[in-house]
Amino acid sequence: MKLSRYVGDKAFYRRVLAVAVPIMLQNGITNFVNMLDNLMVGRVGTLEMTGVAVANQLFFVFQLCLFGAVSGAGIFGAQFYGKGDHEGLRHSFRFKILLCTVLVALCAGVFWFGGEWLIGQFLQGEGAAEDAAASLGHAQTYLRIMMISMIPNALIQTYASTLRETGETMLPMKAGVISVFVNLVLNALLIFGYLGFPKLGVAGAAIATVVARFVEMFIVMVWTHRHKQRNPFIVGAYRSMYIPLRLVGNMIVKGAPLMLNEALWSLGITMLNRCYSVRSLDVVAATNISQTFWNVFSVVFMSIGTSIGILVGQLLGAQKFREVRDTTRKMIAFSLAVSVVMAGLYIACSGWIPMLYKTTDAVRSLARGVIVISALYMPLDSFVHATYFSLRSGGKTGITFIFDCGFVWMIQVPLAFVLSQYTAMPFLTLYACCQAVALIKCTLGFIFLKQGKWIRCVVSDE
Fold first, then answer.
1. Half-sphere exposure for 304 (CA within 13 Å, toward CB)
2. Half-sphere exposure (CA, 13 Å, Cβ side) for 348?
3. CA 385 to CA 404: how far, in whole Å?
4. How many CB atoms lie within 10 A of CB 3?
5. What are phi and psi of 126, to 5 degrees?
6. What is the pTM of this model?
7. Which end of the chain is more exposed for a tag (fewer CB within 10 A), N or C?
8. Are 277 and 283 in contact (CB under 8 A)?
């Protein structure tokens, strides 16, 4: 085995990091501030933290639906840009706007009319009835306010994803950085009532997030429209919503499985957490602590995986097929190496992370175990994430559908349901078993990559 097949030269890593680092910084700062947000709510109390965690599970589904909506058209956008077709990129931008508008309306209706019932599904584990009722109230308060942020979230996703497809990763990063610092400052003022502000607790955390999202939306949109020479796709983008019918059909055919995949995958992860939650309310709090910090420690390899979709998509659009395999192989190897380092750091921090929360010793002990297990499986998650974006870049959304959400619903969710409902298995053992099946997913991903059927240009005839 030649090491050069998996390790690039300096020019290669400069090209990769030029795309990955801005995404890494934006996501890293966002996740870091989300972590501080979670810690601040956690300092208020366990019930408040549990309520916010459950509400965020539901909002997570909405965010992934948005991501799927822009990603489907983004396959075409990256390749149109690689081809030098700005009109095609403009059409993909319009498609994102229309689709995200529909999603915001649908999800807002579901949350408004069915939010209480959905939240209640996560609060059925062992614990006092009054604790569950208090957590339900906190979750409803948080979710109702967060619904206001749906519109700016949709516009941020639409603009930022299109800018990244053109290689403009710095502006979304800068907007994200400003947004998260606004969020952080307002969290301190509104959760705890510093400097004479009202002490709003959970409601304050939600208000801070909503304001921050509007700030981010304003920055991204104003910059894009004021720099039309650098962003020719935005010229006349709102003059009409016309999109060639054939392109609409192709984006639906290629994008629908991807959007459905993100929706079903996020629902699957939410269902996994619901299966875990039936064990006790302590499990809800412990998994929330672990997931919050996992988002911080995984941001490096997750950003590299996202960069694969951009760089490989551009190569496919330019029909440089020989370079695609080499670039993909080296980027996946890079992602794996980074994930091993981050997993070691995550384990090293597993002892003190739970101590940052104002919660019980039982929750802290459980959280410590979940963190260690999550860290041990981090390299598998890295390979799966990189493989997903590689397959998606060539428009093979049918394969990614089977690989991603199909796996969650056919294997992970049934396994978690059976083990949680019909066995007395300790939770940490149950959690480790559900994570271990990622080995199967890695094997499938390796086979799909090796076959190479995903290596193709989907915009050559547009």
1. 26
2. 7
3. 9
4. 7
5. -60, 140
6. 0.71
7. N
8. yes
